[in-house]
């Protein structure tokens, strides 16, 4: 990697590249990147720390390309691509990976239709009657779709048909729920549905847009230069797409220490894999313009090269040994500086949210469980809303005991962690004084997630991309997760801690709860 001492750009670079949109001069590291883009000699990997202005830098870099070039800027989702389209020069196409895949299918003569329920419809034929609809004790279709999606993200089954054994291997690293039917049977259904889907080419779904062009050996659109953002979150098939569409220089930006989506299919070594695939020269963006010095010092425990800006304030890192009894702690600064409250797990957020709800405080919760808890309760109880709370808790305990044994037997610690998080959240909700039966439990869940303003309570995964003057990390002792056993899992955990710490601009509070077990 190019070192900071090598990034002293000549004075003429400031004249050549102008100034930052805010009017200040570009930093030497940014000017070095612009010079490399203009020279077009090397493929470039930009390792950008949290708050380093990576998006501003790469957007500016696009402007130093020629209008005569055919250039694509690959964005993480459609909303970002649409926003980029309004900001980049006309000769630059801002696209998602899915849009490129769809274009490849079209250019190769495909003329079908897009149906987001393609796999659901297939699984209606594959699953037995007691494994679908209200007769099922679990949404087995959702679990099959999850397996199929992961298989496609890894570019599997392009040459050989999908198999149960391969699906079982995929399932070891992701979160797959089990019910009456166990993992081998779920994997068998997923393999059957995959084979049917691969041959049903007149209809495609979202994942097909990436996988099917490779399966059908389509011609991909070609570009003189390719810009890629959030490289740390890419999966293997997205790497292959970059390879297919790139005729010239590839410029990719990301942050190794913000790779936190391996459970969702992202490749943990995505940045290093991209660097190797394209023989990239690596450039650092090591200065954070977000975090105060004391916060940077703490975050350096995991990312030693993180550097505060020259005029960064000292800021504060506060340690609170327990969650305050008085909720005014979270509201004392009013609406302008309400803190961002984040946690590795859902239970501490839900407990705090229930307290705020009980005092009729304004708050918002963002969680991976949002929208799924009520569905899970309905499935577990077969929609028996009159079921007493104690009977529900007995069912919940039996479910967790069963899933715990299955996960331990198969070594699926990631699934056990997710199941434990769901179980703990529901126990906290069910034990609230307002809950007497399943109906009141569902009503409480709806109320808890109904807020739209006030302090934001969210999981660390949901906090990525956010920042706030004041951030509270609830239960920092929950990181690393006790279920993280492998090196990859532990790296993802410490990345989560880094993401959590670097959401704070001015004040970071580490808030413990000695009343809770780890």
From the structure above, extract its key features:
globular; 16 strands; 518 residues; six-stranded parallel β-sheet; single chain; 20 helices; 43% helix; alpha/beta
Characterization of the model:
- With 518 residues, the chain is an alpha/beta fold.
- The strands form four sheets. The chain has a six-stranded parallel β-sheet, sandwiched between helices. A six-stranded parallel β-sheet has the order 11-16-15-12-14-13. It has a two-stranded parallel sheet with strand order 4-5.
- Helix 20 links the parallel strand 15 and strand 16.
- Helix 5 packs across helix 10 and helix 6 crosses helix 9.
- The longest helix is centred in the C-terminal third of the chain and has 22 residues.
- It is globular.
- The two termini are 39 Å apart.
Blueprint (SSEs and pairs):
Elements: H1 11-17, H2 28-39, E1 44-48, H3 54-62, E2 71-75, H4 78-87, E3 92-96, H5 97-107, E4 113-114, H6 118-126, H7 140-153, H8 164-171, H9 183-199, E5 203-204, H10 208-215, E6 225-228, H11 236-245, E7 250-254, H12 270-277, E8 281-285, E9 287-288, H13 293-299, E10 307-308, E11 316-320, E12 340-343, H14 346-358, E13 364-366, H15 373-381, H16 389-410, H17 413-430, H18 438-448, E14 456-459, H19 460-463, E15 468-474, H20 487-501, E16 504-511
Parallel strand pairs: 1-7, 1-8, 2-3, 2-6, 4-5, 6-7, 9-10, 11-16, 12-14, 12-15, 13-14, 15-16
